[in-house]
């Protein structure tokens, strides 16, 4: 905390326990602050290197459940992540801006997840899209993904209609709410930065640069601000496809953002049914080890939205 007023910024690492680049990058920044390499001159900076200690210790994505879904305060917590959420949500409430550092399991380039444009709708009303886009433009990655809550609502509606999932959480309309969505619902704004593949050593550098850029952009420090990126590729999530059976398998070892053409086979169901691309687009977050009833992959298309 600085003596001069300014934004209250929170940086999270290891919301998922097997995504360790954020924790390592935060440790580097803490060391620099301790050594006096720079200081916080305005506002408040809170950094949580390991948000989910149980999952982090196990090197697993989650403990009892996915902390970054259905994030809210529970009057009667029933699992470990509920208990974490009861601490994490008030922490987010006390801040204005969130940078949440993640990684992914298949190879691919870093990208950011951005919220909706300003709106007064019922799904995700929001009034800070310009500030959020400005932050995204300075973080480094040129690939940006939108449409998170829309696609989650579509997935929940499909599961409810099919009554295909025995997991009540996957049928909850709040299932898509993670850290950034919670932050927006409380009047702030937040960006989820996917820094690279879990074990890619470059992912730590992506996270480290993003922290310093955030602090410089928002005026918490006098660190030099590097100029924003340009030529962004903006994609919009259009759908989520669940895995139905353990024997469902992909037609090839997809990587996130691999392009597909309309009608191309993405995967095969256990009974031989083909799962095909509904249009020209991209496979996002393919998870060959997804549990039945859970998200198998997402489908995205190019968006007309501009960043920067």
From TrEMBL:
The keyword Hydrolase is assigned to this record: yes
Name under which the protein is recorded: Putative deacylase
Organism: Acidovorax soli
UniProt-listed InterPro entries: AspA/AstE_fam, AstE_AspA_cat
Gene3D superfamilies referenced in this protein's UniProt entry, alphabetically: Zn peptidases (3.40.630.10)
One protein family per Pfam: AstE_AspA_cat
Succinylglutamate desuccinylase/Aspartoacylase catalytic domain: residues covered: 5-103
Keyword terms: Hydrolase, Metal-binding, Zinc
Gene Ontology molecular functions: hydrolase activity, acting on ester bonds; metal ion binding
Cofactor(s) the record lists: Zn(2+)
Domain of life, per lineage: Bacteria
GO cellular component: cytosol
Transmembrane feature ranges: none
């Amino acid at each position: 905390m600085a003596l001069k007023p300014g934004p209250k910024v929170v940086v999270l690492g290891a919301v998922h326990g097997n995504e360790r680049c954020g924790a390592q990058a935060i440790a580097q920044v803490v060391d620099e602050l301790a050594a006096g390499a720079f200081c916080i001159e305005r506002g408040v900076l809170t950094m949580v290197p390991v948000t989910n200690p149980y999952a982090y210790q196990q090197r697993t994505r989650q403990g009892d459940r996915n902390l970054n879904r259905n994030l809210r305060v529970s009057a009667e917590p029933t699992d470990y992540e509920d208990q974490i959420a009861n601490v994490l949500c008030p922490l987010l409430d006390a801040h204005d801006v969130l940078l949440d550092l993640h990684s992914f399991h298949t190879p691919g380039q870093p990208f950011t997840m951005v919220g909706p444009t300003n709106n007064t709708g019922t799904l995700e009303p929001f009034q800070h899209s310009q500030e959020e886009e400005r932050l995204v433009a300075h973080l480094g990655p040129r690939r940006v993904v939108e449409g998170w809550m829309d696609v989650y609502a579509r997935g929940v509606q499909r599961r409810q209609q099919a009554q295909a999932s025995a997991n009540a959480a996957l049928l909850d309309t709040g299932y898509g709410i993670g850290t950034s969505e919670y932050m927006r619902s409380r009047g702030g704004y937040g960006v989820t930065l996917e820094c690279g593949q879990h074990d890619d050593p470059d992912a730590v550098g992506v996270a480290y640069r993003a922290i310093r850029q955030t602090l410089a952009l928002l005026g918490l420090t006098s660190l030099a601000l590097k100029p924003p990126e340009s030529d962004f590729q903006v994609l919009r999530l259009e759908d989520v496809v669940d895995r139905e059976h353990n024997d469902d398998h992909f037609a090839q070892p997809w990587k996130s953002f691999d392009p597909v053409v309309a009608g191309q086979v993405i995967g095969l169901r256990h009974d031989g049914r083909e799962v095909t691309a509904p249009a020209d687009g991209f496979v996002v977050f393919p998870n060959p080890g997804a549990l039945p009833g859970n998200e198998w992959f997402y489908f995205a298309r190019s968006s007309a939205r501009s960043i920067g």
